[in-house]
Design goal:
By secondary structure, the protein is α/β, with parallel strands linked by helices. The protein contains 16 helices and 15 strands. The longest helix has 28 residues, at 215-242. The model has no long low-confidence stretch (mean pLDDT 93).
Length: 445
């Protein structure tokens, strides 16, 4: 009997991809480049359109993928539809689930549950026995507590009627060298057979496959990796609070030269889908969460940090603040857990006017995600109205701005607080300038 890989290549079998954001679109592109026909769906019409045109409007994603996808769409290897029933036909052998498992900064199951119920609806197809690979980040016990019982309620036995495994993504979408192809891929199925089939399929695009002993261990790896990083970042922030008269960026940079240490630095707060959520995934899945007191404290430190930044601005007399970046990270269109929202909210509570600019979000989106913002502004012209500028994300537009333009428009500015240090080398005249973590960056707070 032909292997699953051979069936995908030679027997007109397809991969169905649920969710066409950063994860889903890139999975489809890589499999299509290897000659595998893919069909996907997403609630957002523009993402469906992107796939069918073989292009992406998601910032930075085309650069990260690094190869042309339009020819793959023209060849029919990449296709998307709003009709999810097209994804449960008998020609679909593999399902990749890449839907959000976060909402409002907390683990969230509704999209995952919805997709699994739809996949289960395909059991009426002849010869139906699909491989379901969950690429979304899960709490360690989610497969046992949600996925398996859901299929069982539909009359399906996992491991016999449907094969289920997890393979959380590790990619870093601003680093072209950290891709689906090059990064080691941790996988784990609910049965040994499932793990073998996952390795067979994912090995088409990933150079190194690392099978875990089962799905539980594979699911936990992603959260533990990021929980470690969260602890280190929280410690960096705590050190900068405990030693305000020292430049902790310098200390941590020097400490990072030790052979067994990474370099971390203080920040306005950790954003995104992964690092700040990881402790919550680990805590939610733990049998004894009270033993994970370090994670609880790290979450508290991280959650308070943006408000601490805002209070420092208020204490230094800020009246009109321009915030550069709704996204939590440069050149990504991701606002999840961005420090911008709590910074602006805290400023508004103190009666300070704050406006937000981000080249990747239109005015309506900024107002929707950052309700406390007094509005938006143009960059760099709009900088003229602010006495304080806060740089959250190191977008290319901010990094590449001409120094002459800054000097021309920062006429009222007295203070710049820079999360990442992109203007550190600019001669900014008499403006007080701080990078997160340097000496007295939070003033007297």
């Amino acid at each position: 009997m032909a292997s699953l890989r051979d069936r995908l290549r030679n027997e007109n079998r397809r991969i169905a991809i649920w969710g066409l954001g950063y994860l889903g679109f890139s999975s489809m592109a890589y499999f299509a480049r290897n000659g595998i026909a893919c069909i996907g769906t997403d609630p957002l019409e523009e993402r469906i359109d992107d796939v069918n045109r073989g292009r992406t409007t998601i910032p930075n994603l085309a650069m990260w993928i690094g190869f042309e996808t339009e020819p793959l769409a023209r060849a029919g290897l990449m296709r998307a539809t709003a009709d999810w029933k097209e994804l449960i036909g008998e020609d679909v052998a593999v399902h990749l689930v890449a839907v959000p498992t976060e909402h409002m900064g907390e683990p969230y199951d509704a999209p995952l549950r919805d997709v699994l119920e739809k996949i289960a609806d395909g059991r009426r197809a002849p010869g139906w026995r699909p491989l379901v690979i969950i690429e979304s980040t899960l709490t360690p016990r989610k497969v046992d507590e949600l996925v398996i019982p859901l299929f069982e309620r539909e009359g399906l036995v996992v491991g016999r009627d449907v094969l289920v495994g997890v393979a959380p993504r590790r990619d870093w979408f601003i680093s072209p060298e950290k891709t689906l192809q090059t990064l080691p891929r941790v996988i784990g199925g609910t049965t040994p057979e499932t793990t073998e089939l996952m390795a067979d399929v994912l090995g088409l695009v990933s150079e190194r496959i690392l099978p875990a002993s089962d799905h539980r261990h594979a699911a936990m790896v992603k959260s533990v990796e990021n929980a470690y990083r969260h602890l280190d970042i929280a410690l960096a922030n705590q050190l900068s609070l405990a030693y305000p008269d020292l430049d902790l960026r310098e200390v941590l940079k020097l400490a990072g030269t030790k052979w067994n240490m990474d370099t971390y630095h203080p920040s306005f707060g950790t954003g995104g889908y992964c690092i700040p959520l990881a402790p919550k995934y680990v805590l939610e899945g733990a049998r004894h969460p009270d033993e994970l007191s370090l994670l609880t404290l790290a979450l508290r430190t991280d959650g308070e940090q943006p408000r601490r930044v805002a209070r420092s601005l208020v204490a230094r007399g800020a009246q009109r603040v321009g915030v550069l970046g709704l996204a939590y990270k440069g050149d990504l269109k991701v606002h999840t857990l961005t420090p911008t929202v709590p910074i602006v909210s805290e400023l508004a509570r103190a009666g300070v006017t704050a406006k937000v600019h981000d080249p990747h979000f239109d005015e309506a989106a900024i107002r929707r995600y950052c309700e406390a913002a007094a509005g938006t502004f143009a960059f760099p012209d709009g900088l003229r109205e602010f006495d304080t500028v806060v740089i959250v994300a190191n977008h290319l537009q901010y990094r590449s701005v001409r120094q002459a333009a800054l000097r021309e428009h920062l006429t009222r500015c007295r203070l710049i607080l820079d999360n990442v240090g992109i203007w550190r080398e600019f001669p900014l005249g008499g403006i007080e300038y701080h990078v997160a973590g340097d000496r007295r960056w939070l003033g007297d707070v």
